[in-house]
Design brief:
The structure holds two protein chains of two kinds. By secondary structure, chain A is mainly alpha-helical. In chain A, helix 5 packs across helix 12 and helix 14 packs antiparallel against helix 15. Chain A is globular, with a radius of gyration of 20 Å. Chain A has a two-stranded antiparallel ribbon with strand order 1-4. A two-stranded antiparallel ribbon of chain A has the order 2-3. Chain A contains 15 helices and four strands. The two termini of chain A are 23 Å apart. In chain B, the strands form two sheets. Chain B has a two-stranded antiparallel ribbon with strand order 1-4. In chain B, strands 2-3 form a two-stranded antiparallel sheet. In chain B, helix 3 runs parallel beside helix 14 and helix 6 runs antiparallel to helix 7. The chains are: A mainly alpha, B mainly alpha. At the A-B interface, helix 6, helix 7, helix 13 and helix 15 of A face helix 7, helix 11, helix 13 and helix 15 of B.
Chain lengths: 340, 330
């Protein structure tokens, strides 16, 4: 019952109004995004401006990048709770390695090995999580819950509980830099969104992702090497968490060991808002992008309306449950659950 | 399932280790830390470890019941913030007794919302409680207006509310007594009553449970009330011990609580696990933390050790069930 199977998306969008309506039904979050967008445009003076839209994109880019990776892992039927700790580890590694005396004579090139090390740490920890899930058969929730604590411990060991500051100004300027009329960070987020969408909807790896999440047994029988496949997806989410950590540290020009602590659940919120199923087999990047935007617009707009941040939390919680409820009501057909 | 004694009698050492790995790990840790530090096994130290684990422990008791029935509760952390802020704030306004009653009613109401959405509307428990996590955190901030609350310093030493966190009975701290009393109470309900068997049945095989005439919706609903009740008790302990509260005091606790439940050996798939195992899981986490500190390691060393211990414990459990160490997955 994967209504979100890969090839149907472009077909249904071309079916005129009926098709559009069904597209909205499958992405109820986009209806919400449109509503809050119009609401804030009317209610506040400063919301509807290109500058503010850029702000929203930059503010949500950290959350959004990780959510891209989380989507692919969750379509697999897994989950990654360790992303928050990986954000801190990658940020700390990158900012610290940049200042190593070895690279002092490298000029701005010293950023290169630092960023490479930061990204590598994310990919490696993702590989470790994936390997454990693959070989031990322990649920990904438990494996990554452990990693959430353990990797945070590694961050504290590495940093010695210190914050690091980027001495290289090219690095801290990057977070505020612009490229072709948009902030560079917004470009990075948008580019990876398109890339992940293509990966999920146009490649063999993408269709394997749905197959593994929908029915693992069948995927094994179809000749998919499920273990390595899941490991690759964990490496992808690790990469995105590390990348998000690095972009976040360019914005701050620093890193702290407690960066993104207790934030991992926000990524899951964004992904689930976008319609990705925790049970696997369903979900897509368009929805996730909508979920990320919903959170970003809501936070930004409420801020502009000078509503205390408290209400954002309540509204987000209610919307999360409402989206789940709507989804259940709309997609009841395939459900063969026993009701009492 | 073969029992502990039978396995010893039959000399089934492998099965014994696999099935009771967490007890063996517990004893192993105690011996290792006992040898490593002469202060570790002193009564004062053991008491302080159990006391500081008691609050997480009380919450873990309720979460265990929810997990046995095959669901998750991620909202306990926010609910702890909510309950503590409320009971501390109301203490000076309407007195300790009414404050506790009002707070309990509110927390149970939140639990009922969880239970209604998961039990009767049949929504995914992880997402519902994740939404409630966010919503309750927001409610807490709205309630307190973003300010931290505390009990008026002049009454802190006279009010009977202090008994729950700071009191002692026959030389044992009150939080410990509450924790163990509640563990025995909930443990016997889960293990020895028809209600307990219904919880296991619903978690083990929901379809079979419904066909056996169990009202699945009501059972799931009730487990969230149990969880909320435990959070309420934990709030009383915390509020009474600190006599004040930050708005986000419970932030991140949901996953720590879950970690100790998992460490005890309760399966997230539902249908198995026990309160005793959770108590052991909570104590192991507490003793790892304390033991490593006494051995001179920094406090964050416990997180790395916990990482390894959780995965090893669950791996051992899973491996014992399928009869081979590595997953057969391709």
């Amino acid at each position: 019952m994967s209504q979100t199977s890969v090839e149907r998306i472009p077909v249904q969008t071309n079916r005129g109004t009926g098709g559009n309506f069904r597209w909205l039904l499958r992405h109820p979050i986009w209806a919400f995004v449109v509503i809050v967008f119009i609401f804030f445009s009317l209610m506040t003076d400063n919301f509807f401006s290109l500058g503010n839209f850029e702000n929203i994109l930059v503010q949500t880019s950290t959350l959004g990048l990780i959510a891209l990776g989380m989507t692919i892992v969750m379509i697999n039927g897994n989950i990654d709770l360790s992303v928050g700790a990986v954000v801190a580890l990658a940020a700390s590694l990158t900012v610290d390695i940049m200042g190593w005396p070895v690279f002092e004579s490298w000029g701005n090139w010293q950023i290169l090995p630092a960023v490479a090390a930061g990204l590598a740490s994310g990919v490696l920890l993702g590989a470790l999580n994936g390997l454990i899930v693959w070989k031990t058969g322990v649920d990904a929730f438990i494996v990554t819950l452990g990693a959430m604590l353990g990797v945070r411990g590694l961050v504290f060991v590495y940093t010695g509980e210190q914050s690091f500051f980027a001495m290289n100004f090219a690095y801290s300027d990057f977070g505020a830099s612009r490229f072709l009329g948009l902030p560079t960070l917004a470009w990075i987020f948008l580019a990876f969104t398109v890339l992940m969408h293509v990966l999920l909807s146009r490649t063999v790896h993408g269709s394997n992702t749905y197959a593994v999440g929908d029915n693992r047994e069948a995927a094994v029988n179809a000749g998919i090497r499920v273990g390595p496949h899941m490991m690759v997806n964990f490496m992808i989410v690790g990469f995105f968490a590390a990348l998000a950590g690095i972009t976040l540290s360019t914005q701050m020009g620093a890193s702290t060991p407690n960066l993104w602590r207790d934030y991992e659940l926000w990524v899951i919120t964004a992904t689930v808002l976008g319609g990705t199923k925790l049970t696997g087999g369903a979900g897509n990047i368009i929805g996730t992008f909508g979920g990320v935007l919903a959170i970003g617009i809501l936070r930004n707009g409420m801020n502009l309306m000078q509503v205390p941040a408290f209400y954002v939390l309540v509204i987000l919680g209610v919307i999360l449950i409402a989206v789940l409820f709507l989804d259940k009501q709309l997609n009841r057909k395939g459900e063969e659950e026993l009701r009492l | 399932m073969t029992g502990f004694v039978e396995r010893i009698r039959e000399g089934d050492l492998k099965g014994l280790i696999a099935r009771n790995g967490i007890f063996i790990a517990f004893v192993g840790f105690m011996i290792a830390f006992g040898i490593g530090s002469d202060k570790f096994l002193s009564f004062d130290n053991l008491e302080s470890v159990v006391r500081s684990s008691a609050m997480i422990g009380v919450m873990a008791l309720g979460v265990t019941v929810v997990v046995i029935s095959g669901n998750l509760d991620l909202s306990v952390g926010s609910m702890l913030s909510f309950g503590t802020v409320m009971v501390v704030d109301l203490h000076d306004k309407i007195g300790p007794g009414p404050a506790i009653l009002v707070m309990m009613a509110c927390v149970l109401l939140l639990g009922a919302v969880n239970g209604f959405l998961v039990g009767f509307v049949r929504l995914n428990s992880l997402i519902v409680t994740l939404g409630m996590l966010s919503a309750i955190q927001g409610l807490t901030l709205i309630y307190s207006g973003g300010k931290n609350v505390d009990v008026d310093p002049s009454t802190q030493d006279i009010t009977w509310f202090r008994v729950f966190g700071r009191g002692e009975v026959v030389g044992i701290d009150m939080p410990i007594i509450i924790f163990f009393a509640l563990a025995v109470f909930i443990g016997s309900i889960v293990a020895f009553t028809p209600y307990g068997r219904r919880v296991y049945a619903v978690g083990g095989n929901p379809t079979a449970a419904v066909f056996s005439g169990i009202r699945r919706n009501r059972v799931v609903f009730s487990t969230y009330l149990v969880s909320a009740f435990c959070v309420g008790v934990a709030s009383i302990i915390l509020g009474s011990r600190v006599m004040g509260s930050q708005n986000n005091v419970g932030q991140g606790y949901e996953l720590l609580v879950l970690a100790s439940v998992i460490l005890g050996g309760t399966s997230l798939l539902g249908g198995s696990g026990s309160i005793l195992k959770t108590v052991i899981g909570v104590l192991i986490l507490g003793f790892i933390q304390n033991g490593l500190l006494l051995l001179g390691y920094p406090y964050f060393a416990q997180w790395i050790v916990t990482w390894i211990v959780i995965i090893l414990a669950v791996w051992l459990d899973v491996a014992a069930k399928r009869g081979r160490l590595l997953s057969p997955i391709a």
